[in-house]
Every structure is written in C-alpha cells, then in structure tokens.
Design brief:
This protein is an alpha/beta fold and 336 residues long. The protein has eleven helices and eleven strands. The chain binds adenosine-5'-triphosphate (ATP). Pfam families: PFK.
C-alpha cells in the first residue's frame, strides 16, 4: 500500500492544518497510509511521528499553528542530515514525502531527493508569499488580514493623538506583506525593499520627513509608516531616532511581530490549503516528484522545486506604482 509522510517546517503559517487535513482525507479516500513527522525535519532525524487518520484531523482546519508542530533543524544543512532523514523514510517504507513550508524547507526537500528514490512534493506554506510559481502562499492572506486589522486599531489612537506611527510588518526579505497591508490601510508611507535602498537611507529619510511635514502643515490627523522588517538599518527604533534628530518629529513604534503568524486562517487560506493538499495526493498517484504545487489564476500546476526556491517573486508592479503615484501626486499638489 502507498504510504505518505507529511511534515510542516520553517515559520508556521495559518492554513497549515487545513493542508494536513486535506492530505489525510484524500490519502484515506485513495486507501493510502499516512503518517506525520513532528517538529519539521527534526521529526525525521529523531524518528518522532504518528499515524494520521480522519480522526486526527477533525476540527483542525479553523486553527492557526500546526498540529505537527514546526521547527528549524540545523542538522539538515549538514551533509549527514538529509542521509539520516532518508534512513528514517526507508525504515517506514515511505513512498512520498509532502513538506509544507517555505524556501528553506524546500531546500531540505531537494537535499533529501538527492539521496532518495521516493517522491518529494512541497506545498507553499509561509506568510511571506516569497515563493515563485504561485500567486499566493498558504498563510499570506491571514497575515495580511491580521496586520490590516491591527493597523486599523493603531490608526484610531494615532488619529486621537495626531501621531506619527512606525509599524513594522513581517516579510523576511520581501515586501508582499508591507505593500498589501500598506495599501489596505491607507498608510501614508510604505518603506520596503522594492521602493527603498537600505544601503542609502538618507534620501528616503529626507523624502519621508518632507511628506510628514507637508501633511502636518495641512493638519491631517495621523501619519502611518508601514516598514518592512529587516529593511531599515537599526530597525524601527533607529528610524524613530533619526526622525527626531533630523526634523524634531516625534513618533511611536509598533512591531506587529508574531501576531501575524497566528490566528484562525482566513477563508482564502483554508481554501487554498485544501486545494493544494488534495492536489498533492493526486501528484502522489500520478508519480510526480521534485515539485511544489502552485496556483496561478485558477489553475493548479507543478512548479519545479528549484524554480520555487530560486526564481524571483516580485511584488506586483501595480501595487508599487499605485503607492508611488499616489504619494507623488500628493506631494506635488501640496508643495504649490
Ligand atoms: P519561512 O521562510 O516561512 O520561515 P522556511 O521554510 O524558508 O520558512 P527556513 O528556516 O529557512 O524556513 O528553513 C526551514 C528548515 O529547512 C531549516 O531549519 C532546515 O531544517 C531546512 N533547510 C533550510 N535550508 C536548507 C538547506 N540548504 N539544506 C537542507 N535543509 C535546509
């Protein structure tokens, strides 16, 4: 009988449980056995697992986190790590390994593939949306929704005190969350990798100060800056200090942090996870391997793992243009 193993790895993302559930349901429908390894690749290295049936995945799709737990596993990056993982897969007579995670997790999957005859299939599970070959990753929609609601609340208090707020959002090294959230909340400024050179922040700082001063002159209530994590040297506190030193602008800082990773998955993530999970089992049946299942438009398709990992996944140019044009127009109008 065909035997599938599942694990979740790297940063957890809301919707991972929905994906596990879909895989288990489809596996049982096809009369495949299914087991889950715990704590990312650590579960494979330490042989930590459990059988998964319908009962184990009942009432999980509405919860964030992952019932299989997630973790980083440094040993997988050592030469012995993937070989040890393969020993465990052989011991359990696994035919296909499905990993739900981000680009790092897919590198681990490729390393296993180099030593193993079984099928390896990835599902894009990361809030960062930084995997090529799929419009959205599992967890992205929820993270954007959570951060949007949080900034709406910040806006209330920022308006009341007529404050400048710097709100740091997640995204690792990409600005998908920053741009979506910035536009969805009407942030006055979005500072992200796509529109800001972190090696030369002086020009960006001058521009930002100019924008804030123009706005304050016209007595607008508040000014929200959405800042992508890992962008500004010294982080949001350094930006706050620079605004104060250079232009006597007071600001408050809010780092949204891990609340963006948790919470009940948005319906979009539940549906995406379900669709991708079902397709992963179809891929097992069809003997497809070395792929991530992606979705572009309404079509599901196989993306070579190397492409998903290495190809660029730029923020949609429409969003960057919208932000740029709106701000430029605003400045030009108010400078007169
Ligand atoms: P996210 O970006 O959402 O945090 P991710 O999957 O990219 O998710 P990483 O921490 O980069 O998260 O990687 C997860 C795990 O994948 C690592 O802890 C490690 O076990 C494995 N991994 C990462 N890179 C490699 C590699 N080059 N070779 C083997 N395994 C790797």
């Amino acid at each position: 009988m065909t035997k599938i193993a599942i694990l979740t790895s790297g940063g957890d993302a809301p919707g991972m449980n929905a994906a596990i559930r879909a895989i288990v349901h489809s596996a049982q429908h096809n009369q495949y056995d299914c087991i889950g390894f715990f704590h990312g690749y650590n579960g494979l290295l330490n042989d930590e697992w459990q059988t998964l049936t319908h009962r184990d995945v009942a009432n999980v799709l509405q919860f964030g986190g992952t019932i299989l737990k997630s973790a980083r596993c440094r040993a997988m990056c050592e030469p012995q790590g993937p070989k040890q993982a393969v020993n465990t897969l052989r011991k359990h007579q696994i035919d296909a390994l499905i990993v739900i995670g981000g680009d790092g997790s897919f590198r681990g999957l490729e390393a296993i593939k180099a030593h193993w005859e079984g099928q390896v299939i990835g599902l894009p599970g990361t809030i960062d949306n930084d995997l090529a070959g799929t419009d959205n990753t599992i967890g992205f929609a929820t993270a954007v929704t959570t951060a949007t609601h949080a900034i709406d609340k910040i806006r209330d208090t920022a308006n009341a005190f007529e404050r400048v707020f710097i709100v740091e959002v997640m995204g690792r090294h990409s600005g998908h969350i920053a741009f979506h959230v910035g536009l969805a909340t009407g942030a006055e400024a979005i500072l992200s990798f796509e529109n800001c050179d972190s090696a030369d922040t002086k020009q960006q700082l001058d521009r930002l100060i100019n924008q804030i001063q123009v706005q304050q002159q016209y007595n607008h209530d508040s000014f929200v800056i959405v800042l992508a994590e890992n962008l500004w040297p010294g982080g949001p506190q350094a930006l706050k200090a620079q605004l104060a030193e250079q232009a006597d602008i007071e600001s408050a800082v809010c780092v949204l942090g891990h609340i963006q990773r948790g919470g009940s998955p948005a319906p979009e993530d539940r549906l995406l996870a379900t669709e991708l999970g079902l397709e992963a089992v179809n891929a097992v049946t069809d003997n497809r391997t070395g792929i991530m299942i992606g979705k572009q438009g309404t079509a599901l398709h196989d993306v070579p793992l190397s492409h998903a990992i290495n190809a660029a996944k730029p923020v949609d140019a429409r969003w960057i243009k919208a932000q740029h044009d709106v701000l430029t127009e605003y400045l030009v109008k108010h400078r007169k």
